[in-house]
């Protein structure tokens, strides 16, 4: 099959981009020994310098719906500085097979289980022959509160680094040597961090150190410029501040660049998306199955499901999966997609022939190629066996929804305005569902950015396949599988027991 010059250029550029990005990302691991560590059922990873002697351990904890990979920039930075960095997956997250337990709304519920888990990881880290008996805790978002509360109870913890902190447990003097790092685009969390600093000194300001970390009573707030809740995990400022703070606590000196891998990760993922365009041209071509939707049909199929779905499900019990709010989302997707497909069918719009090779290629590329890059460098994307039934259950809803989305967006051929209206309506329906039952569906708010990212990244890939195969069925099935997979590995597994 002849490939056009622009596609050939894109193929070469994509391969070059991916190769350079992978080289730089792997280079960040050079000189380090990275080994697995099992702490009971908790999977952990130990990062240490190959030529290093005994050193303090730093326990690194991720936030809600995160995993060890998401915190790797801190692990690499601290390991390269000579520390023994131990990162792990919380219960219910990543590859941890044990579900989260307890009441997530109560301090004496889930928080206690996660706090004990950090204690077990701390014990295991201190037992490593490369650790000198000293330890610090570092945690992001949800974990910031967990590590603060753990540090209050564990006298072995010499320092606490809380990234994107929100915790009501901070006191005037505890925890010892508290560094609080927030992104510049996290105004509410910045305010909370400054309030915690002012418990120790009412005149405290951002960027100012109170007390002396070498003495044990240090406290400091730091603002990482130009980043938000996720970007702060890759900010050179945040990484350097964490390293400097621990150096001050443990009387050490570190030099050299930090492992600011965020830019290379973004470049790698962009390269994978770019490659999908010329690769889609290798699929068999198809004929356009129907004309562009009339405006009335488009609006009916977009707005009616968005309005009806959250209202219809407001009082429906959807607790049937051992995953936080994923069961509701699966039903929401199913009803939304069924309503949209029904309206389109009444208007004479059909899915038509399914290009199964295109559906398979899209699903495999999204899950294996893009997902493999994600799993290696960003966040856990390869599920444990316990998650496979969850992915299948979500797919029952995700496939109909993505079939309807592929029809209303005309297989990726619709105008950007129509795409924004269609997907914005779906996001608005999720927001309405949260507003109607905030206590039950609060965690959906945290997943909405993931869905936006899905639309941007995988929506582009689906558009490439759709414009080549002219098969809404191929795009809908392929993207439905990817969406189910993405949500199935991201939502924390949960058991009320």
UniProtKB/TrEMBL annotation:
It comes from the Bacteria. GO terms for molecular function: aminopeptidase activity. Keywords: Aminopeptidase, Hydrolase, Membrane, Protease, Transmembrane, Transmembrane helix. Gene3D superfamilies: alpha/beta hydrolase (3.40.50.1820). Pfam families: Hydrolase_4 (PF12146). The chain crosses the membrane at residues 264-285, 297-316, 328-347, 354-373, 385-403, 415-435, 441-461, 473-494. Residues 57-164 form the Serine aminopeptidase S33 domain. PANTHER family: DIENELACTONE HYDROLASE DOMAIN-CONTAINING PROTEIN-RELATED. This is Serine aminopeptidase S33 family. It comes from Roseiarcus fermentans.
